[in-house]
Amino acid sequence: MNASTRTGVRYTLLMLFLINFLNFFDRTIPAVVLEPLRLEFGLTDTMLGLLGTAFTLVYALAGLPLGRLSDRFKRTRILGAGVFVWSVFTAASGMAWNFVSFFLIRLGVGIGEASCAPAANSMIGDMYPSKQRARALGLFMLGLPLGSLACFALVGWLAQNHGWRVPFIVAAVPGLIIAVLALTLREPVRGSQESYAIDTQTPIDRPYRRVMAIPTLWWIILSGAAVNFAAYAMGNFLPALMIRYHHVNVAQAGLVAAVVLGVTGLLGLTVGGWLADKIHALFPRGRLMMGAVCLLLAAPLLFMGLTRPAGDVLNTTVLLSAGWLLYFMYFVTVYASVQDVVEPRLRATAMAVYFFFQYVLGAGFGTVVTGALSDFYGKQAMNAAGATQMSDAFRAIGLQSSMSVVVPIAIAITGIALWFAARSFVRDAARAGGNAAPLAAPAVPSVSLAAAKA
């Protein structure tokens, strides 16, 4: 690999990271301004949960056709168009005049953001060989914690000083710039990093059926639904929990969320990606086994953090941070494993299918179930106190009770699913390339970014 090729690969990975950074920054803004939004529009927690549910359902549905397009056409163009669309709708979110208008505008954001994951993951699979993918995907996925960290830290301050509408408009500006830059990226050659020949001429029939016939992917889909159930409950309601239950202000709640949901990812994704590749080199199913162990350890830590007494901000932050650091190991173990069990021409489709179930079954229900349980437990607390009117104190108890049930259980299910995925991984990875002719070692470029035909 020459210096020019290395530079091109690194630039492309940097741009994909920035796109992912904006993806998570823009989708996280509503979580930071949840309380001001609730007060202005007079919303219940169930209605707030429905906002997240509608967004994720549209995101999941739009991802299926966008995934197929990413397997057939230039992924750089799909990414550029997607970033442009979600940036325009992000700006429009700050101009909403009631709950219905905000609800509909966020659906537009979801459609645009659905372009990111299938296209970007497919491109990284064609830029790096299997033994380096966890590290590359870990760097790409740094967009999640860094985007969340920046959002919770910056948006909390902006909302505190300028109102909840301003952050949406500010966030749209870099998105429009990145949308243009995405069109300048070179398209990686599909399958260029595999040790077997890729048939680029024969059309692929029944792509969704082929993808869904992979047993490992079924377990990974279950893990994705469970992990997103927990992730969206935490991402949407952690700031509100800190405000209601632990009595901090919006800016302080944003800072706690930035540490728990953002800073932990810096270590989890960078060190985790390196460790996952090392384990994979020694033990083929080691990536998934590592993920299973990390998630099973995370569940009790998160339970302890969510059940700390009111006002114990420090211990809550420490325990939740420890658990969420282990949660981030999920991405470097699972995303690389999907690439290994699916042939290159179906990777964007496979990621779209995975994200469809992950968001429909996980994120789509995670927020609304957490919100509904919060309302339920809040009413229970009100009735137990003999009160006749709902107060902020009862809402605080309801939300704390709901999150302490939803998050640890979903994370534990994730770990169990990864354990079963590891059992079938070796067989399915062999099948992915087993029907293709091996290539001689010199014929495999370490990295190729030659433009692919649309």
From TrEMBL:
Domain of life: Bacteria
UniProt KW keywords: Membrane, Transmembrane, Transmembrane helix, Transport
Topology within the bilayer: Multi-pass membrane protein
SUPFAM superfamilies reported for this sequence: MFS general substrate transporter
CDD domains in the cross-refs: MFS_spinster_like (cd17328)
Keyword Transport annotated: yes
Transmembrane segments: 12-34, 46-66, 78-97, 103-124, 136-158, 164-185, 216-235, 255-276, 288-306, 318-338, 350-373, 393-421
Places the protein is found: Membrane
Coiled coil segments of this chain: none
Name of the protein this chain belongs to: MFS transporter
Species this protein is from: Pseudaquabacterium terrae
